[in-house]
Amino acid sequence: MKRQQVLLVSISLVLLIVLYFFSPTVPAAKRNAAVAATPAGQSIRFEDLLIKAKQTISPEQVIRIGALENAVVRGDVKDQQIHVYHQLARFWSDSARVFEPYAWYTAQAAKLENSEKSLTFAAHLFLDNLVTEREPAMQNWLASNAKDLFEKALVLNPANDSSKIGLGACYIFGNLSDNPMQGIMPIREIVEKNPDNMYGQMVLALGGKKSGQYDKAIERFLIILKKEPNNLEAIFNLAECYDIHNEKADAIKWYEIAKEKIKVPEAQEALAKRIAELKK
């Protein structure tokens, strides 16, 4: 494995720890084994994810889930279907802690409710996981679901800049198009009109990092940290950009800042190890 890849994996693990402990929208922790089993170039199907997810729960829970699934099929009243979808989502979130079915059923309920709030909440479930996802097939699955939800939300409120940025992020991180500018341009237009839109700045910064444009990513992370000095995601990503770009002094500086701000022992240990390596 190349040095840059090692850094991306090791330090990104720290970022994942931070996101797990501090993100309120990602309650489920297990990765679905169906992702690793998906051949390159083949699309992921929710049905396959669900089969694998059911293998992680007890037979009694499988029976309970089957009854709820049948209730959705039999239900002829929209409100009844919405209620069952929420029950399924809560089970996969709270009891089983498997992300994919939790997000999927939340999305199904949101589509039936057809409110901007529910659609954008569901869209961000997929998008928040997309940003840190490494598997191309899962990136595409997450992005496709988020894109569908953001588009429905924008029908209800075409002026919502947050939804426009979210939709652009689907293209940047989800391999939905051969033209990355399809996602970048709408976000860039929003940020040019309103530089204080930190959500847009963050997506562009992460997009720059993903594409290897570290100078541009660093510039945007610094913009964010001037406004939000305690933004851990920006701090970790800024340090990693400096690290990969071989700017050791700045990398050490921001890793030290990160180490001071986060109280998760695993993250502190990983950061201390990386700081020591850079000081050699």
Please render the helix and strand layout as text.
Layout (H helix, E strand, L loop, with lengths): L2 H20 L10 H4 L9 H9 L4 H16 L3 H18 L3 H15 L2 H15 L5 H21 L4 H14 L6 H13 L4 H13 L3 H14 L4 H13 L3 H14 L3 H15 L1
General description of the model:
This protein has helices spanning about 5-20, 35, 45-55, 60-75, 80-95, 100-115, 115-130, 135-155, 160-175, 180-195, 200-210, 215-225, 230-245, 250-260, 265-280. It has 15 helices and no strands. The longest helix has 21 residues, at about 135-155. Helix content is about 75%, strand content about 0%. Residues about 1-10 and about 20-30 have low confidence and may be disordered. The two termini are about 20 Å apart. With about 280 residues, it is an all-alpha fold. It has 2 domains: about 1-30 and about 195-280, Serine Threonine Protein Phosphatase 5, Tetratricopeptide repeat (Alpha Horseshoe); about 30-180, Alpha Horseshoe (Serine Threonine Protein Phosphatase 5, Tetratricopeptide repeat), CATH 1.25.40.
| Outline | globular
Q: In angstroms, what separates the terminal alpha carbons?
A: 21 Å
Q: Write down the overall mean pLDDT.
A: 87
Question: What's the number of helices?
Answer: 15
The CATH class assignment of the largest domain is Mainly Alpha
Strand content: under 5%
Largest sheet: none
CATH superfamily of the largest domain: Tetratricopeptide repeat domain
Q: How many distinct folded domains?
A: 2
What is the CATH topology assignment of the largest domain?
Serine Threonine Protein Phosphatase 5, Tetratricopeptide repeat
What structural category do the secondary elements indicate?
Answer: mainly alpha
**Helix and strand succession?**
HHHHHHHHHHHHHHH
Query: Which consecutive residue ranges, at least 5 long each, have pLDDT under 50?
Result: 1-10, 20-29
CA radius of gyration is: 20 Å
Name the helicity range.
over 70%
CATH architecture annotation name of the largest domain? Alpha Horseshoe
Total beta strand runs: 0
